[in-house]
Amino acid sequence: LSTPASPKPVEPKSILLLGPPGGGKSTLALQFPQCCILDNDRNMDGPERFVRSKFKQLSYGYVQITYDDNGEPYPVEQCFDRLMDQISLLRQEVAIRTVVVDGLTMVNEFIIQKILKTKAVTEMEARHWQPFKSHMIALLAGRLRSLGKTIVCTCHETILEKPDQKNIMNPIVVGYRPSVQGGIIDYFGGFFTDVWRCTCLAAPAGKSEFKIQTVRDSQSDLKNSMGMPTEILVKEGELAWLKLEPFFSKSYE
Questions:
Q1: Distance (Å, rounded) from C-alpha 214 to C-alpha 197?
Q2: Regions of the chain with pLDDT less than 70
Q3: pLDDT tens per residue, range 84-103
């Protein structure tokens, strides 16, 4: 029985960071406290350089999924199983508070290659998309959420467009969706407590700004569970986590 005097325990957050390449998703993920990065696309050098320039004591766990522990390339069709195994190992790591899967668009390819290898085919057929969905659900709703830690997943976005009758060379953007396949996209956000869109924008004087959108609009199916504002703007040189941390702290009170 959950009552005001004795509410149910707050569940750990599961956050999807959606956005274009270079939008700051990995940089934001790296700022979460005591995180371990499960790196699927070898794209952490830039984010690490930026965050450490502001927070020189930065220390985090790191696992390269596409290479084995000896630095040898890992077979792509086996990378999904390696990812799942590495997630399980983190369950007992008490020093790790945040597990980051960077990024889900590459995991999408891992699952496809696993199915092609298992079924001994060269192309995905209609009957193969059900096991694809099962693998993705096992990752998002099973393995990750069972850790009891904050989960952050990054994912590239697919731009949805329609023709502009007045200018056929410049289509109109009508929306953004996570860049994953297999029909699961229709309810993808349901696996997360929060879905935010990250973009990096040009600012005056040749500078840049980082924007986090947290509330659903006509173009993106976003949500937040912590009462955050519709947009959070981070100026060049600032760490986004300093603006996010108060909302996290309040949500766990």
A1: 7
A2: 252-253
A3: 999 999 999 999 999 999 99
Q: Whole-angstrom Cα distance, residue 252 to residue 148?
A: 14
Integer angstrom CA distances of residue 224 from 42, 119, 127, 204, 235: 28, 39, 35, 29, 21
| Element of type H or E holding 133 | helix 129-137
Token code pair at residue 125: 């057929």
CB atoms within 10 A of CB 245: 14
On whether the pTM is more than 0.85, the answer is yes
Cis peptide before 227 (omega within 30 of 0): no
Are 192 and 136 a contacting pair, CB within 8 Å? no
Helix-helix angle 129-137:104-119, to 10 degrees: 130
Burial class (CB in 10 A: 0-12, 13-18, 19+), 252: exposed
Query: What tens digit of pLDDT does each residue of 101-156 get?
Result: 999 999 999 999 999 999 999 999 999 999 999 999 999 999 999 999 999 999 99
Three-state SS letters, 58-110: CCCEEEECCECCCCCECCHHHHHHHHHHHHHHHHHCCCCCEEEEECHHHHHHH
- Please list the residues that pair with 64 across neighbouring strands: 39
By C-alpha distance, which of 12, 143, 140, 47 is closest to 90? 143
The C-alpha R_g of the chain, in whole angstroms, comes to 19
Q: Are 164 and 172 in contact (CB under 8 A)?
A: yes
Alpha-carbon distance of 233 to 135, in angstroms, equals 36
